[in-house]
Amino acid sequence: MNYDLIVIGSGPGGYVGAIRASQLGLKVAIVEKESLGGVCLNWGCIPTKALLKSAQVFEYIHHAADYGITVSDAKADFGAVVTRSRGVADGMSKGVQFLMKKNKIDVIMGTGKLKPGKKVEVTAADGTKSTYEASHVILATGARSRELPNLKQDGKKVFGYREAMNLPKQPASLVVVGSGAIGVEFAYFYNAMGTKVTIVEFMPNIVPVEDEEVSKQLLKSFKKSGIEIMTESTVEGVDTSGALCKVSIKNKKGELVTVEAEAVLSAVGITPNIENIGLEDVGIITDKGRVVVNDFYQTNMPGIYAIGDIVKGQALAHVASAEAIICVEKIAGHHPEPLDYNNIPGCTYCSPEIASVGYTEKAAKEAGYEIKVGKFPFSASGKASAAGAKDGFVKLIFDAKYGEFLGAHMIGMNVTEMIAEVVVARKLETTGHEIIKSVHPHPTMSEAIMEAAAAAYGEVIHL
Questions:
Q1: In terms of Cα–Cα distance, which of 14, 15, 18 is closest to 332?
Q2: Residue 389 above 80 pLDDT?
Q3: Nearest one of 245, 237, 243, 239 to 261, comparing CA atoms
Q4: Are 399 and 371 in contact (CB under 8 A)?
Q5: Which of 63, 433, 442, 462 is flagged as catalytic?
Q6: CB of 52 within 8 A of CB of 349?
Q7: Mean pLDDT in residue range 71-93
Q8: Kind of pairing, strands 393-399 and 371-377?
Q9: Is the distance from CB of 306 to CB of 300 less than 8 angstroms?
Q10: In this structure, is the dihedral angle defined by the CA atoms of residues 11, 14, 16 and 18, taken in order, positive or negative?
């Protein structure tokens, strides 16, 4: 079979690229070894948000008295929570199947491998091999949970994110190694469900990629909810021979301490899936475990492209989707703009939520900017007070000379829904004064953005 485009991998990069290519008139096939939608839809973004919603509902019930409502004897059914999450993921995967049919995209189930001459060999589950040809091939094979040498995953007592969302029973205690988005989301979920949680983080701050003030606020909120946190600490080894895991941790003082827990979640990042996909067979260049591409995702081999977690840039679903669209539009002869990786929003869905885009305060100073910083706490927000969600703040950073909108950092309820305003504002080269003069609705959480901008310029009203 000959195609204009074959996409290997059907995650938020692969399936989005396939659909956009079909819209542009290309004959498209997509190769997937497991479930349409990839890790994000089946084992990542979507089902974790379903788990987190259950945890949030359980928390609301526990704090119902704060809202003048009496609830007694509320219990969490862990199995039912997991079942709901899987149901949400399955429904979304069926939605991608529908989109493939609607856009006349051939779905080839199996493991894809590049062969010379822009051929793709697909090995089906039963071992049979088929070969397909295309004018263009996009690699969108994603990533998997990274394993540390001293933290080997057995899938039962020591596991990654995939097992963490599908455990047969809720652990009474859990050590979470790593405090990036995956680590803190699961730490919040299990803590809210009643598990005793300890976070171990190698860096000085949890959520280390975030602005330091955001990290400190999350630390405060997590400690208040009973999560134990060990920063500047490393896991030296795990003994899984007994009923409980014995986790050896070197703490910030350099002392070796042992923490016992029923299970250990390794959330120390991801590893790109670049093995056994034929890169060596066709001579594609990689660097530090990622495929080397240009601004439009072409590899060193004409007609072969790579997007998503296997190329440099933030390993985020919305980044993969944006890269896919740019890549395909370039293939189709359009003239897309290269992606601005400094205007990519990052969202973490623990409670309180975190959302950020652009420069942190530290990074802006290191880049040589003279800055104005405005901060508005949700404790001064009428909507936040009414909602009983006063933890957190919005922090905005502007260039003092020209008013350029350098960055935004938010922590609080629903801030993941608020960050898009800043992304659009920065894309349109909006200044701080234009944000101040854009009337925001009251009472809302989002008016904190206007107030924070006003705070940066000494014009804040409600502080």
A1: 18
A2: yes
A3: 245
A4: yes
A5: 442
A6: yes
A7: 94
A8: antiparallel
A9: no
A10: negative
Model-wide pTM > 0.90: yes
- Which residues lie closer than 8 Å to 36 by C-beta, 6 or more apart? 10, 15, 93, 96, 97, 100, 107
Sequence length of the chain is 463
> CB-hemisphere CA count at 13 Å for 157?
15
Give pLDDT tens digits for 136-151: 999 999 999 899 888 9
Chain position carrying tokens 């670049």 = 274
**Tens-place pLDDT, residues 51-73:** 999 999 999 999 999 999 999 98
Residue with tokens 């290191």: 366
pLDDT tens, position by position, 121-132: 999 999 999 999
State yes or no: is 442 an active-site residue.
yes
Residue 1: pLDDT above 80? no
- Using the 8-state DSSP alphabet, how is residue 309 labeled? G
Task: Please tell me the distance from the alpha carbon of residue 130 to that of residue 334, in angstroms, as a whole number.
Answer: 32
Output the six-digit token pair for 71.
């609830």
Reference 390, options 260, 217, 141, 226; nearest CA is 217
- Rounded to the nearest integer, the mean pLDDT of the chain is 96
